[in-house]
Amino acid sequence: xxxxxxxxxxxxxxxxxxxxxxxxxxxxxxxxxxxxxxxxxxxxxxxxxxxxxxxxxxxxxxxxxxxxxxxxxxxxxxxxxxxxxxxxxxxxxxxxxxxxxxxxxxxxxxxxxxxxxxxxxxxxxxxxxxxxxxxxxxxxxxxxxxxxxxxxxxxxxxxxxxxxxxxxxxxxxxxxxxxxxxxxxxxxxxxxxxxxxxxxxxxxxxxxxxxxxxxxxxxxxxxxxxxxxxxxxxxxxxxxxxxxxxxxxxxxxxxxxxxxxxxxxxxxxxxxxxxxxxxxxxxxxxxxxxxxxxxxxxxxxxxxxxxxxxxxxxxxxxxxxxxxxxxxxxxxxxxxxxxxxxxxxxxxxxxxxxxxxxxxxxxxxxxxxxxxxxxxxxxxxxxxxxxxxxxxxxxxxxxxxxxxxxxxxxxxxxxxxxxxxxxxxxxxxxxxxxxxxxxxxxxxxxxxxxxxxxxxxxxxxxxxxxxxxxxxxxxxxxxxxxxxxxxxxxxxxxxxxxxxxxxxxxxxxxxxxxxxxxxxxxxxxxxxxxxxxxxxxxxxxxxxxxxxxxxxxxxxxxxxxxxxxxxxxxxxxxxxxxxxxxxxxxxxxxxxxxxxxxxxxxxxxxxx
Length: 608
What we know:
The chain is an alpha+beta fold. The chain is built from 17 helices and 18 strands. The protein has a 9-stranded mixed sheet with strand order 6-5-4-3-7-2-1-10-11. It has a 5-stranded mixed sheet with strand order 12-13-16-14-15, covered by helices on one side. Helix 4 packs across helix 7 (185-193), helix 5 (111-123) packs across helix 7 and helix 15 (462-482) crosses helix 17.
């Protein structure tokens, strides 16, 4: 079934019949070898750039980006007079103003969260045969600016699927194994990374091979003062080995869509567009995000220059309040590097390792890393969330242990996955200032709670609150039973500090309090005093102990509440069973009474 008639491109984008359209349409696809599309991974030379730009001055002029390239300021502009997209014969409808594209994208506070959404789309295509997704920096031919490329070899999108992808809130993903579910990820993620995106997709369905091009351009919508989100698209039927345009209206409509795409995309001609399909193969999707956003200093938010095999976030690399003596240790740990290194983040983004799928970041595959396998003194704890009487009972396996660097590094928290996708990395459930639990890290897959729309947190449901309390209890119980393995005692202090406090010091204390010997320590060698974390020293941790006590009391109260709730559930079930038995007994009594009454009447009749 063909998609609905597309809305006519407004008058600001002139509808013309291109001069060479008939000849170009009839060019067979197989007249060119599939030797790779012609995009640049290095900046084009000045000569190349000029030659492309001179093909169409109007196209180059329209391609100019927005004046303010900061993402967080891109939505603050005067709307002014707008161009109505309503044409004669159309029904009046509720419009989605282009400003919504920006406000919708602000759900992604973190740029890597937006990139993860696009990786999710590729991973969801594994069921359709996808074996890889490529992420790379390319350069646009019109102005030599960097662009972000995502390309997978999945099943691709036919014309109808392409329109659903570009629509707001539509999702055809109903499988329990797919990550996407809201139908919003593509729009929010692409608009968070850049002002404009162009999509190329090729698919085969029911014996019909098609290829489609779609443009979602915030720049176009703003500069032409649209009052509705217009997405120009063109489709081709390639079943007979040549690209035959698929028309849903007139040929002028199709040509108008093509002209708008050429004016506002990085490609100056229809041939340039067609070349982008050359390295897609018989099926797959290519996404090019251009006019990338900049930070407040006018520098690209994504840093492609510091590491040729990585994509980094400029504003996250030096963000934090870490003391200088801990910087080197923290920078080497994954929990720190994942904040600004896409390669580090992608390595833990999926819980289970892929068997026949790769994320190729800037030409090099990402090596997946298992946080659980890297823990020491680990154990597995089973948790069964109470989801109600009508829902199927589930069990959650949580792996908990110490990081390899403990106790030198105080990294802690739970890495919570949902349907194999990391939602909350290193989620610290213990109170700030609480030294107990330092170095304790856990990993679990919580499919029984729902992620937020940006997939960087969970919805604050009752189940989520219960999970948080249960994880706090896990940390405390694990700490009490295992902290001695890394030189701590159960109150959070280091073992040597505890011994030094409980026994008198000898007179061979080294100046500067760097080394001490303890009267009870059998070894005659000098013993080091490990630095405790802030608030963990017993002489200065009254507030911390108070926090610990409150935390313990809260956990105990929570567990008592859970016990009472379980008892209540049991009592409710018992009452229901007794009521059912009572009802059955009443029915039996009624039947017996009826039988006795019948027998009595029969006896009286016989006696007469």
